[in-house]
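Handout, section B. The chain below has 145 residues.
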Amino acid sequence: MKLIIDQSLEHENVEITIKCGMIDEQLERLIAQIRLYSFSITGKKEGSSYLIRLEDVYYFESTDNKTFIYVEKDVYECGYKLYELENHFANSHFLRISKSCILNVAKLESVRALLNGKFEAQLFNKEKLVINRHYVQALKEKIQL
């Protein structure tokens, strides 16, 4: 793979061009990450709306028919259902880890096995989440454990 960066004040916008023979799985993941980089999601908190960059999201969680966006130190309400987020962010760093949670594996600091086949994820902000055994294999594949 060859990477060419053309930096100049003449360029008004960032443009990414990929030239390839065939798109393989690794390239597909790279393309998904590039798309996520420029994507943000709206979160609400205390009556105000905020644009949240996806790379700042630690995880999404659904409770009492509401979906929440968790960033390093804040929580925002989200207008999407969890399954909508899961479908939208397929082939990205986001992965369902339980019935009520989608994790950004880029924010994963460590993982350890628990009883009954479950895992515990510790995030960079020191929060801990339980990964249900049904989703452990997908996590292993995503992070190549």
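Note. Residues 59 and 70 are 5 Å apart (CA to CA). Compare this with the example in section A.
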